[in-house]
Amino acid sequence: EVWNPNGKYRVVSTKAMPGTRWINLLIEQDCRVEICTQKKTILSVEDIIALMGDKCDGVIGQLTEDWGETLFSALSRAGGKAFSNMAVGYNNVDVNAATKYGVAVGNTPGVLTETTAELAASLSLAAARRIVEADEFMRAGLYDGWLPQLFVGNLLKGQTVGVIGAGRIGSAYARMMVEGFKMNLIYYDLYQSTRLEKFVTGMSGSSVKIYQLLTLILMLICFLFAAYGQFLKANGEQPVTWKRASSMNEVLQEADVISLHPILDKTTYHLVNKESLSMMKKEAILINCSRGAVVDEVALVEHLKANPMFRVGLDVFEDEPYMKPGLADMKNAIVVPHIASASKWTREGMATLAALNVLGKIKGYPIWSDPNR
Ligand code: DGY
């Protein structure tokens, strides 16, 4: 599919993307836009090389593609300067190879934060209240009347939510679970991100003087909160608590619901493995909307088999689009096909950011969102 055939710059998108805003942006800036119409879901390196051809100024690609040395050298030979992943995650992109061939790389953070956090929250609720199992039960015609023990799940209120990876998405998810469901919070960030800390404490930390003033105000607020806590206790309510864990194991041991939000790299590959699973509570819920390989899926299947009260909600898998043998048979697993960012607003935003990334570089502006920055 070709838009604006006489455009000066040739921009290729390896997939059709939602909305038309991204196409219009490129056309207005004298780009010829070519969208791959191949039926295959996942394009091979060879398919993409053929698509780029001899002249290609920039490419918008997808997280299912392997953007390494071969593709970046081919893009550079075609005169290309820019590549944008239509994703916030860029574990499929070899940024060093891109740099070596003079190609700038962009990703699409921000617009998918709330949408992804909402899916993690949905999976948490669905797992806690066994919604998918109950739905299957109804559709199978098995419901023959209300029973006191039918699909009894967990009440989230007052339980502890554990967040591993406290960046944008992890922080948004924590906020939803704490504010929305009155869960206590424990979190751990491998890169010591203070984003979530700012959310919980409400501190900006910008200058010493402001900090001192804020400390005073905070002390006053703390006093009021303590008084409020006493009031709630007296009235049978527990105020929520939060803490930053000093190790991931602390989160694994203490949390009732654990949600994973780290990036995937060497350090987070199989972060959740046989040993870490064994540290979690027998009735814990594990949510993964980050990348599949953060969890050792074979070990997870074994753990699900051995612990029927342990539940998972998975949006991502180690070898997408496949699941490891046995996972699909587990009643205590909810599995969805990598749809965490799949809201209309977000997907259109991701497409627009990806187009802006490529356009910015072609036109000589700084790339909108460079993961190296
Ligand atoms: C991303 O952007 O990295 C998400 O996985 C897409 O849903």
3D structure, described in words:
With 373 residues, the chain is α/β, with parallel strands linked by helices. The protein has two domains: 130 residues, 3-Layer(aba) Sandwich (Rossmann fold), CATH 3.40.50.720; 197 residues, 3-Layer(aba) Sandwich (Rossmann fold), CATH 3.40.50. Helix content is 39%, strand content 14%. It is built from 13 helices and 13 strands. It has a seven-stranded parallel beta sheet with strand order 9-8-7-10-11-12-13, with helices on both faces. Strands 1-3-2-4-5-6 form a six-stranded mixed beta sheet. Strand 7, helix 7 and strand 8 form a beta-alpha-beta unit. The longest helix has 27 residues. The protein is globular, with a radius of gyration of 23 Å. The two termini are 33 Å apart. About 2% of the residues have low confidence. Bound molecules: (2R)-2,3-dihydroxypropanoic acid (DGY). (2R)-2,3-dihydroxypropanoic acid binds next to loops. GO terms for molecular function: glyoxylate reductase (NADPH) activity; hydroxypyruvate reductase (NADH) activity; NAD binding. InterPro entries: D-isomer_2-hydroxyacid_DH, D-isomer_2_OHA_DH_cat_dom, D-isomer_DH_CS1, D-isomer_DH_NAD-bd, NAD(P)-bd_dom_sf. It comes from Camellia sinensis. This is Glycerate dehydrogenase. Keywords: Membrane, Oxidoreductase, Transmembrane, Transmembrane helix.
